User: Fold these one by one.
Assistant:
Number 1:
Amino acid sequence: MKCIYCGYEESKVLDSRSTEESNAIRRRRECLNCGKRFTTYETVESIPVLINKRDGSKQPFDINKVKDGISKACDKRPVSLSQMEQISEEIEKYVQNNLKQEISSANIGNIIMERLKALDEIAYIRFASVFKNFNSKYDYINFINNLD
Ligand SMILES: [Zn+2]
């Protein structure tokens, strides 16, 4: 994306957000040469971001799966709906702002775990048990022993 002021080829993305009406991504950029800022609109040919799963398979990113995982972990726990929504919004933003076409599920899971840890320990452990695929009580014991 050439700088509109000096023609330099490289710029840094300061902010990117999707414009829902036009199916485009609006990006604020800063030229790495002259430092001027400009906005670009890039049309997305609706190529979904792919999530690399631990087993090596790939799936298109689906925010509903994130929401589902969070709400299951928080079932009957003192985590409010808006707190859960905040986490999934953060994940959505992370995926949208990520300039890569593929993101590992571990990346996303780690962010969710970090947020849940700050909110509720039980929700955190529940989420971790699914995310890290706990197989036995020893997995729980190890995990809990390593909690700080
Ligand atoms: Zn420039």
Number 2:
Amino acid sequence: MTSFFARLLGKATSRKKQHTLSVDIHSHLLPGVDDGSKTMYESVKMIKAYKAMGYKKLITTPHIMWHRYKNSSEIILEKLEYLKDALADHEVDIEVEAASEYFLDEHFAKLLANKEILTFGDNYLLFEMSYTRAPKDLREIVFDIEMAGYRPVLAHPERYIFMHDDFKEYEELKELGVFFQLNLNSLAGQYSKRVQKIALELANRGMVDFLGSDVHKLSQTETLQRVLASDTLQQVFAKNTILNDTLL
Ligand SMILES: [Fe+2]
């Protein structure tokens, strides 16, 4: 016979608070500026999907990657205003801000020197680099970012193939003060089995600071929805201090 206390415990367990996410810090939702949303219609549809998933604030981050996407703070902020107007027209009530996903290149070095950087929250700077090859002076760049008063956040650390075989690479970056932003859809294997495995490993080691959707198109919001409802995500919350909702 199940005792009263066992039943009570069972109920308490089933009622245990599920962690949710209210803030997203990485996406490509501004139309026509990079490889993300192509039209305003698509942007509005994607943002409706985020709202339905419970998000309250989106910090969208178009690429600034000089060999592919020659964006600037002005272009991004202007597009953001158009997007906000469209959301108001469609009565989609959600907070939207913009920063950028900076690719580490010479153009970035110039922007950094001039402090022409779009940040989010308390001076966080989202950056990415080549998936296959480490920038030769990565430590120096991280140091420069920090000396300029920014807090470096590495986008999707699990996607850098050149780091996969040596976890010390990750540990060293953490020691330098780099925050790690895991892509939620990596947990579902959206990129590859290998990337999924590294994502879980980073999470199990408690090395994740932010979670990002990195959504580029509507179909990826379906994967995102599955990840948000998964036990895996609850385990990520249990093992890491996730900072997203400090930005609300
Ligand atoms: Fe991205």
Number 3:
Amino acid sequence: MSEICIALTFDFDGMSNWIANGATSPSMVSRGEFGPIGLLRILDLLDRHDLPGTFFVPGHTALAFPDHCREIAAAGHEIGHHGWVHENPVRLTPEQERDVLQRGLTVLEETTGTRPVGYRSPAWDISPATIPLLIEHGFLYDSSLMGDDFSPYWARVGDRWTQDGPYV
Ligand SMILES: [Zn+2]
């Protein structure tokens, strides 16, 4: 019998993604309203199979659905940081990025009682400031980079490149 390892991860975004992108018509917002409904189904599925998962949650969503976030934590799942209002870090200044990182940490910790140690960029894109900020704030891992499939690797800073030279 072979053994396999998988990581079950979910984004619980609620309405934050639509608000971040200015898509706040009733129809678009209703897509976010479905988040808590889908979340409860996923929690039930994981419970029935005794599987742990990780849920990445923006701070804005934790404010909107605190009971749902507490339910995630009470079921023993990990909650990771997923921005403040699902904003793209690449579009922020380093100061703005620091602010949304700290605001998200504060609300997630106050809501669930646990300070997140994992981070997933809402845009699956990170700025040059992101990794140093994550290290500064005590994060243990990032789930935004795609340099391997299931083998963890160290996030780097300082890569250099040109279009007609080697990647260093
Ligand atoms: Zn997301």
Number 4:
Amino acid sequence: MDQKKYTITTSSWKYNFMIIKKSLILSFMLTPFTILSQDCSEINKKRVTRLQADIITLASNEMEGREPGTNGEIKARDYIISRMQEIGLKPKGTDGFIQAFTYSEGDAAIQAHNVVGFIDNDAEKTVVITAHYDHLGYGGSGSKYKEPSQIHNGADDNASGTAALLELAHLIKNNNIKEHNNFLFIAFSAEEKGLLGSKYYVMNPSLNLNEINYVLNMDMLGRMEPGMALTVEGLGSSLIWESSLKEIECDAFPLTLKKRENGPSDHAPFYEAGIPALHFWTGKHDDYHKPSDDAEKINFRAESQIISFIEALILLIDSKGKVNFHLREK
Ligand SMILES: [Zn+2]
């Protein structure tokens, strides 16, 4: 045996071991942080305060129920833009953060506005996070309330999801992690008119659809009660979802997992376009589509925990590459 060679081999082994050791130490250093950020039971007071501010503002009478084509929609749109700017998102609409589109209602042409912001991590794929911000205005055909018209504030539906979208943007922007994905945040309008904002976006995307890794949609996250489950739908859209969701340790609430990929919210048009998509919600209630869907009925602390759960999912699958689409046999 060549002694010199042996020495070199030994030292290169030593060197490799040092690298392995260093990366082990690094991963130990990172692990507690990852576990902490995945502990969804913990209540983050600052987060609760931000959620309260966003939901109370969006569900205030000043926004008049955020119906597309009204001043209330414009006020809500501009509030979301100002929050996205404050968080530090890049505009990714067609006119800054705005993507305007028109639809007809009877003889009238209504202009509505999606709001689109971006976190660029120089990655190949982009995770799309969505929530609609429009609601029923003063009622109309979508209302379950049969008395004279009143403002439908839509605190749960869907100021709660919009606030969660802004909070996830804040978390991802400020977590000091450069994820392996970019993140696109879309607050849709005209969901209540038949998913018009998300259908329009999928037909007129501001990035190439095949760059999208997967979609997470949030519609009604505000009415968690003790013992209630968080419902996650769309598990049929990829085989990765069920095991990933079950991997997240979270004692705060149980999960109800559903395969249904094309349920009635903004994730459905993405699924139809061949993109894996999940939908999160806390379920229907007596105030659903009524003027009584107000901010004081929101469980902000539970919503904060749900956001931690969604954040944990994003981080868990971040380094796993493209989430493969699965088309369920009918
Ligand atoms: Zn909704």
